[in-house]
Structures are given as C-alpha cells and as structure tokens.
Amino acid sequence: MAASTTDIVEDLDARGLLVQLAGGDELREHLKTGSRTVYCGFDPTAESLHVGSMVPLLVLKRFQMAGHKPIALVGGATGLIGDPSFKASERSLNSEDIVREWVERLKPQLSQFLDFECGDNSAILANNLDWTENYSVLGFLRDVGKHFAVNAMIQKESVKQRLEREGEGISFTEFSYMLLQSYDFAELHRRYNCTLQVGGSDQWGNITGGIDLTRRLHQAQVYGLTTPLITKADGSKFGKSESGTIWLSPTKTSPYAFYQFWLNVADADAYNFLRFFTFLSPAEIKDIEESDRQAQGRPEAQGILAREVTELLHGKAGLDAAVRISEALFSGELSRLTEADLQQLELDGLPCTILESGASGIVEALVSTELARSNKMAREFIGNNAVNVNGQTINDVEFALASAGALHGKYFILRRGKKMFHLLKIG
RNA sequence: GGAGGGGUUCCCGAGUGGCCAAAGGGAUCAGACUGUAAAUCUGACGCGCAAGCUUCGGUGGUUCGAAUCCACCCCCCUCCA
Description:
The protein is of the alpha/beta class. The protein contains 17 helices and 15 strands. Strand 5, helix 10 and strand 6 form a beta-alpha-beta unit. The longest helix has 30 residues. It binds one RNA strand through helix 12, helix 14 and helix 17.
C-alpha cells in the first residue's frame, strides 16, 4: 500500500468517530496526498487496557488500512505523571516499578491490531520514556517550558474545572503533564515525521498543545483529530459490566465475559458500537439496523457486534469458546450437557472452583464462588429465587451440594440472577 | 509559619449528645415484565439465622450515653506570608 485509497476522514466521519479536527480542510488534503505518519498515546494506568482503548487503537488500524503509518505510543513517562484532563481530583502516583511493569504488559496489547511488517507503512511501537528519561530538568524547562504560557494553560477546558472546583486542587506535577505530551508530538515529528495525533476528545487540549509546540520547535505544521468518548444511551459508564471493568487481557476478562458484554449492549447503543468497534462498512450497518427495525423481537445487532469484536480481539478460537459457553448456559437444559461439554466449559474459561470436601452448603458455595458477597446476601438471593443449581431453582437455605446431585457425579453449575454462572467441580 | 473551611457507610451528601446502622440522591444487586434489551414497578444494599456485634480520618478523654463535646495527631482545600 503506497498511496492512500480511501478518504480516511470521510470514513471516520461516516462512523461518527470524528469530534474535532485541528487543521480542517488542510488536514484532509494532507491525508489525501500521501502516506502520513499518525500517532496515538496510551498511558499505563493499569496492567491492561480496557474496551475504551479499543476505539483509538482501531482508529490507528483504520489509518493503516488507508495507507498511513501508525505509531502506537506507550506512556512510560507520562504514566509516571498522570493526565489531569477532565479528572475531578488529583490522583496518587504509581511507583516506577509498577509503571515499568504495566508498560511491558501494554506493549503486546497495543501491537495486536497493527501490522508491523507491511513495508513503508509498517507500524511503530514507541515509548516516550526514551526521550524524556535523560532530559535534564533545566534543559526541559528552558527548551520546552519556555514555549508555554501559564495564562493559556489555565484556560484549557481540560483543567479548568479542576482549578475552579471547590475542595480540589492540582499539583504542578499533573499541571505539567501537558508539556510532556506536547513534547512527545514534537519529538515524534522530528524522529518519524509524524504529522497527526489522534485521541479521545478529552485529549484535545494536549493535542493542540503539541501542535503549537511543534510549530515553535520545528517550524512545522502538524495536525490533530479527536474521537468521541464512548457513552451509553442511558448515561451509565461505558466499559463496565456486572462483573466489573471489561479488560482487553484475556486473563482479566475472559473471551466469554467479553462476548457477553457486547451481547448485552442496549439496542440504543448497538448500531453506534458497530460503527465504532468493527470494520463493517457504514452501509452494511445501516442495512442491519433497517432489517432489525422490521423484524419482531430481538435485534441481530448485538449478536453481530459480539462476534465481530470478540473475534477481533481474541481470534477465532476465543470467539468459538465464548459462543460454546453462551449456548450451553443460555439455551437448552443444563442437565443435558455431557461430561465432555462440562470439561469444555471449564477449558473455555467459565469461572470454575474446585469443591474440596465433596459436600457443601449452598450458602457457603455462593460465598466461596463470589456469587454472593456475604452469607447474608446469599440467603437473600435464595429467598428471592435468584439461585439455581444445575437448572433447578433453589429456595432452601439448607440445600446441600452433594455428589449424588452433581452432573456426572462431579459438576455443579451455579447460577445467581439471570446471567452470573459459576462452575463448581468436586475435586 | 498564620487565618479560615473540611474529612460520614461504593460515590455525592444530610446529620452537631440519646428517636442513628446513620435522611436523600446516584451507582450496584435481586424479583416481576421481557429479547440474557430499554423503560417501569417491587425489594435489598455494614456483619450476623438470631440475640446482637462492628462503623462516621486516627488516638485518647468527658458522659449513664458520642458521628455529634474536649485534647492531641494525620490528611485535604482556600487565602495570607
């Protein structure tokens, strides 16, 4: 892929992935007239990225598919400082060791969607620690800091609320975050001729900071583009499910849980998410929306979304496992599962606990599998008819899990509520 | 260093000697209804089967009795130096 074939800005716009453009028509022209280098940064704030990071990560891939060269930047330096943008309060610093470890964990996640061996527009993985670690304080303050006016910095929307909010403040450490990220852009321009930074719309202030700095340091025009922060129609926070944050790491969120997350997306969000998180064309998505509207009952969108995104992240095998578990648990009778099916469920990543004693009360089983937070809660669930073992609703607090009642003599499938399942195995 | 304001159960936030396991809202969970939606309604939401027990930044104290009063300490915010 030498020259770009699709108009990437048009495509992003059609998907609703465009919030702001720094450079406007000039940027559109810039992207149409050659293969450009584009970057997006990801700070190590946890040991794994979560679903929210998939949007910019996939945007990088969209750029690569359109013939441009993507740089995934991991914030080994900025992760030590903490971005204050739109954060309500100061965050505590993570130790250097922790950040270093998270950086290593993030690298493969950042790399997995991008192509590193496709010639001229092969992706690059960078770490901003490389150009900041040995930068002297005095040098940085003189060369970089001098280009920033505090007057302008405090006007940025991203920190304004912090400055004005009663009971909160902002440390100089976090306040200077913008300088670091701005310097990243300038440095990536110098090293790789990077001319575009993309990021969530909360990054606008930091991106424009980088554009200004690059102009001052290198007399070069660079551009910015922001994507929407993903919100849900009902206003609740995107990226959480009943079991917590949806992580990209399969050890933290199993392919099954990941698949279920997408399957449970609200109708009002499903089509937008198809546009944001898949490579289906806007036209195809429109067709799905249209046919769902005409059909009765459950829409197709969530199923398509769940399959597409799960396969994108976890591959065919991960998707198959997720589908197998889902079908076994949600359709058909649990008591009909063969021993091999049950073993497969365990292999596929359904949460599983070994039951040592061979017999256990239902209350303690619920607590030990974390299906209930306390004995009291477990009893309440039972009282509400919310507990189910091997397909049978349990309404007796004294119910005992004994091998006699186990599937194939050793398995229990515990269910709390409608969707929380746990496999219990007599060991 | 000085002056002032503040730290309450996941979050916001009321409570200023007993009626407080602590109002209200949000989040969350369960049930009904459904499509493993949404909306709505009902219930739960420190621990304990219960009697009861442990909570209101920390430690001591006053009191029959403290989240509420006193002392000291820690932390946060605002202004001044």
